[in-house]
Each structure stands twice: as structure tokens, then as C-alpha cells.
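[job 0417] fold request received: Lysine N6-hydroxylase/L-ornithine N5-oxygenase
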Amino acid sequence: MKIYDLIGIGFGPSNIALAITLEEQKQASYGIESFFIEKQPDFAWHANMMLDNAHMQVSFLKDLATMRNPSSHFTFINYLHQKNRLQDFINLKTFFPSRYEFNDYLTWAASHFDHCCAYGEEVLEILPEKHGSEVELLRVRSRNQDQVVNERLTRNLVISIGGQPRIPDGFRSLKEDSRVFHSNSYLKEIKRHPNAKRIAVVGGGQSAAEIFMDLHHRYTAAQVDLIMRARAIKPSDDSPFVNEIFNTDFTDHVFNSSDQQRTEILSEFWHTNYAAPDLVLIEQIFNVFYRQKIAGIEQHRYLRRHEVKQAVSQKDGIQFVLHDLGADRDYIESYDIVVLATGYNRDYHKYLLAPILPYFEDMRVDRQYRLRSVTQFKPAVFLQGACESSHGLSDTLLSVTATRTQEIVQALIHSTSNQSASGQLKRAMPSALAY
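[job 0417] inference complete; emitting C-alpha cells
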């Protein structure tokens, strides 16, 4: 069976950026043969949140390559040049392209690597391949859309699978009810309910705010309730000094801090990334409620300081027991649709790694995002987007994506050199990419 130097699980922005860095290393005569496995049938980035007028919250300069190599073929600027839109984009006078355009950029970048990515395959498990008492390789088992199980061997592994929808405990019993769905599947699911009259959006972040405004325009006669525990919708703080926490050198500062200091940093700046919509979007929502006051109607409601104590599936709707924290009272509401904009969990890699978890002492990573393992475990296993607690709030964002891949590739070169019988990396074959 063919043995790869690296297999990547997931082919979103993080692993696309890694593929780009690996390709540019090949052009510098260092060859690491890689292969990627993606569950989706083709490339898509937050496909169900491609809402009209939604834009990026991160500068286009924090793309897949610019912060690492501004002269790369894969910068957003070059993408615009290739698409003959550079001058028009300049005339927009913005650092924040639409989400639709940035998705097109990512799709363009991903298309360069179709030859080394298997789409429509779900990774089932990762098994150790032993030689004596040592684990030398990993066997990655995946199943494609035809239910065929494929197995591939690799010397190293990188997991970049993004977040899995976080479903609050009170809603888990409703997972089979099509009237309750996470924002991750919003556009796909909302089309199935064209006649909804009562809609609840649970959450207080960017996704909740965007969905509220989309529902406001999509259902002109429906009642939409925005439900959150907070007293107010607070805007993200993107002022210059605060934004320094997303600089690449701040990752060193966070990683080298004590556990207590790291916890304090994450707590202090939590609202820069979570439960913090854009100010412009907040103003749009406020304007919706203000216009309702002028008209003397209450079509939509902002239920601040509210908790969903219970959610029950009934024939005529989803019944909530809501607790008003301000008035300290419970009351009942019923909805045709419930949208959970409740964020994501980022620990699914533990499930994938279950067969080899005993080889990792505490599931901590080093500065180069490699899981610390016992000495008899030789493969390097890297995590992208699951190291916020050790590397800071930028870990799940585009801010450090390009530079992080350089750090991982340098660690891979060292690891692959050690794994090679000759101690030398093989010379790379000519690039197969057509620019």
C-alpha cells in the first residue's frame, strides 16, 4: 500500500493553506507527499450561511498565503487579478469582501489541489501500524459516498475539521425534529418551511444576528424572536490595540504564558470573537425594532435576559418554557421553527483519534501544534483549529492560518527527515499544478 508523508483530514481553509505551503516547499526542492480527505462532496465554506450582504469580519490580507508569503500565487490579490476584478475591488475601498466572494476565492485555491484530495469521504477511524513495540505508521480508514471503505497509510497526520455544531442539552432530544436546526444548516433547512409564522433564534453572536435579519426580510409577516441570556447585543471590538491579540507573535505570548495567565487572556478578550456581531449589523437590528415602535406593532421581539428552560416537540409547534431572568418568572411560547445559533464544539478530533489516544499523554500540543506523544509513537499528529486553549483566540480564525502552516511544515520536514531511512528528504518531483 502506498505510504504518504502526510494525510490531512478535512479540506477547509486551514488544510488548503497547508497544501499551498507544502506546494511552495516542493518548488524549493523539499518534497512532502500529501493527501487530503474531505467529507463534503465538493469544496464549500459555510455554504448554509452565504446570506445576502454578509461580509467578512477579517481583512482580506489575512488570506491563505499573504501573511506568510505575499508573493504567493494563492493570495487574495492574485485571485482578484486572475478573475480580472482587481481594479473593481480597489474601487470598493474595503478590507472586508463579501462572504460569497471569499468563498469563491477559497474554491479557486482548493481547485488547484483536486489531484490530491478525495471529496465525499468520511474518515471512520485512525489505527496504529506497529513494528515491534513502536508505532511507525497510521492507517486512515474512510468511507465514500458509494459506501466503499478506503484505507491509506501515512507517516504523519494533520486534523483540520473545523467545529461541530453545539446543541444545548435542552435541545438534544429534538435532534430528529426537522423544525429545530443549527445555524450550520440554516439555508438548507429554512427553505423547507416557507409558511412559518412563529420563529425563534437562540443565540447572541454574529450568526444569530445575521439570521435574524435574513428572517426579517425572508418572512414579511412572521414573528421572529431573538432569544439570548445577555442584557444587550455587544459589538465585536476590532480597535487596533485589541486586534493585536490576533497578531502572529501574540501566539508565542499566549503559548508561553502560565495556565492561569492564559485563562485570564482568553477571558479578557473573549468578546472579540464570541457573542459579538458587527456594529453595523447591530444597528440594523436596532432599526428594525425602532421602526416597529413607530408603527405601534410588535412583529419581532428581542427577548434579552431569557433562558430556554425546556423545549418540547408538539404537533402544532416547538413549545418553550422560557425563564425571564430579569423578572424571575417562567412562561410558555410556541414556535414553528427554532434556529440554534449556539456556536461550535472543537473536540471531535478526540473521537477520530480514539484508537490511538493511549499514545498521547495529556492531549496537549507543542508550539508547532503537534500532539505530545510517548516515545514509541513515531508519527507526528497536528491539530489546526483545536488549540485555542494553548495558542489563543486566533487559533480558530483566519488570522494565523497562513503562518501556522509554515510552522507545521517546518515541523513536518524535521519529522519526515527523522522517519526517512537516509535521514534526507527526497527531492521533489516537478509540480503538477497549472497556474
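[job 0417] notes: Residues 131 and 215 are 58 Å apart (CA to CA). The first strand starts at residue 3 and ends at 4.
[job 0417] exit 0
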